[in-house]
Amino acid sequence: MRPKIYLFGDSITEESFGDGGWGASLAHHFSRTVDVVLRGYSGYNTRWALKVLERAFPGCDDGGEAPLAVTVFFGANDASLPDRYSAFQHVPLDEYKQNLRSIVSFLKKQWPTTRILLITPPPIDEDGRLQFPYVENPLNQPERTNEAAGAFAKACVAVARESGLPVIDLWTKMQQFPGWQKDHLRDGLHLTPRGNRLVFEKVVAKLRDEGLSLERLPVDLPLLADIDPNDPLKSFQK
Amino acid sequence: MRPKIYLFGDSITEESFGDGGWGASLAHHFSRTVDVVLRGYSGYNTRWALKVLERAFPGCDDGGEAPLAVTVFFGANDASLPDRYSAFQHVPLDEYKQNLRSIVSFLKKQWPTTRILLITPPPIDEDGRLQFPYVENPLNQPERTNEAAGAFAKACVAVARESGLPVIDLWTKMQQFPGWQKDHLRDGLHLTPRGNRLVFEKVVAKLRDEGLSLERLPVDLPLLADIDPNDPLKSFQK
Question: Ranges for the SGNH hydrolase-type esterase domain (chains A, B) (predicted)?
Answer without folding.
Answer: 7-198
